[in-house]
Every structure is written in C-alpha cells, then in structure tokens.
Write a structure and sequence with these properties.
- The relative contact order is 0.12.
- The protein is 79% helix and 0% strand.
- The chain has ten helices and no strands.
- Helix 2 packs across helix 5 and helix 8 packs antiparallel against helix 9.
- It is an all-alpha fold and 240 residues long.
- It starts with 7 loop residues before the first helix and ends with a helix.
C-alpha cells in the first residue's frame, strides 16, 4: 500500500529506506531551523519562537520535576527535550499530505527506544554502582531473588518493545487512517480528523517523554525509593 501513496520525497528517491532517511533529514533540518530561530537573538523578554521554546522547555522541566525531582529534571532536560522535539516533528510531518512520519517506521522507533534503555541503565549503574543497581532487581526479600531477578530483567527488556511499538503502532495507524480518508474525501473535508491526528501526535510525544523520565527515575532514585518503602514499613509496624 505504501508504494501507491504519493510523497514528495518518494517521488525523488523512490519508496524504501531512502524514503525514511529523506524524512529523517527533513525532520532534522526543521528542528535545527526552529532551535536556531529561537536562539538567534535572545531577549530578556522573550518573543516569537524564543517564547515558544522557553515555554516548551519550562513544560518539560516541570514534567521532570514531578517525576524525578528538580536536580535530575535539569540534568536530563537536554535529553528529554531533544527526544520530544524529534518525536513531535516526526509525528506531525506525517499529517501533512505528501509527507510520511519517520516514527511510523519501526526501524526509527526501535533504535530510539534502545537508546533510552541503554542510557537509563547506564545512569543507574553510574550512580548506584553495578552491584547495588542489579541488587535492586532481586526484590526486598532475599529468598525470592532467584524468582524476582529474571522477572525484572524481562520487565526492563520489555520496555524497549513497549516504547518502540506503542509509538510506531499509533503513528502508523494514524497515517493509514489519513491515507484512506484522503482517498475517500476531498482534502478540505477531514478538518476534524486532522485536529484529532494532531492531538494524537502531541499525546504520543508526551507519553514517550514522560516514560523516559520515569525510567530514569527508577534507575537513579533507588536509594530514595528504598527509603520510602522502609518508612512506609516502619509506619505500618508502628500502627500495628
């Protein structure tokens, strides 16, 4: 079906890997253009694109603050904000007739999910050490460690599938829906579906970003999590 759908880049390079690469390059150019425009002339009172970008970064920081705290929200802001820009532009570009979302290709979303997986595990090991980090996988009861450890390993690996296939499946479905809609009706009629697809593109971007923060929080805040559980246990014991 994809080969019957017209795209501007596909008309030049054909359908296949070059179609995805071409759209990835286009998304990259758009991100560089927007960020350059936002930082070209910084004003004390932000205006235009600078204002939009500052609102975006403030929102990402606020999101991270609620999940991982002020310190780590600021530390991981560049990573999460960059992921957000990439996913957002990749999602939105497919809503424009004649273009295709790079995130509708599993070969794009899977490496992105793998990169997040590797990074949050690296950060967890870096902060807590190899032994303490993987000891957390064994659960609070030593007797259950042989059972808990493989379950935790599978659970963490499944996050790759969850991140990549959720984004890929939703955006691919949106693209197919839009293609069918445009084949059945004139372009001016599907205005409501366009609004819905735009909302879904923003929502999928938010989900990917918040999950990245959640996974980072689970990796670097092991001590805080353990202390919280110990406090709850002590309170429950005291109540009894």
């Amino acid at each position: 079906m994809e080969e019957t759908v017209f795209t501007f880049i596909g008309s030049i390079f054909g359908h296949g890997d070059m179609l995805t690469i071409g759209h990835l390059v286009l998304v990259t150019v758009l991100i560089v253009f927007v960020t350059t425009l936002a930082t070209k002339k910084l004003n004390v009172v932000p205006r235009g694109m600078q204002n939009i970008m500052e609102l975006y970064l403030g929102g990402v920081l606020s999101m991270g603050r609620d999940v991982v705290g002020e310190k780590y929200a600021r530390k991981y802001l560049p990573l999460v904000a960059t992921i957000g820009l990439f996913v957002f532009f990749s999602n939105m570009i497919g809503i424009i007739p004649g273009f295709e979302s790079p995130t509708s290709n599993i070969n794009v979303t899977l490496p992105l999910a793998v990169a997040v997986f590797i990074y949050y595990n690296y950060e967890g090991i870096k902060k807590n050490g190899v032994i303490d980090y993987f000891a957390h996988f064994m659960g609070p009861v030593p007797a259950l460690a042989p059972l808990m450890f493989p379950i935790e390993i599978v659970s963490h690996i499944s996050r790759i599938i969850s991140l990549s296939f959720r984004l890929f499946g939703n955006i691919k479905g949106d693209d197919l829906f839009l293609w069918v809609l445009l084949m059945l009706t004139p372009w001016i009629i599907p205005l409501v579906p366009f609004a819905m697809l735009s909302f879904m593109a923003v929502l999928q971007t938010f989900i990917f970003m918040i999950l990245t923060y959640v996974y980072l929080a689970g990796a670097v805040l092991i001590d805080e999590h353990d202390d919280h559980e110990s406090t709850n246990t002590e309170r429950a014991t005291a109540t009894v």
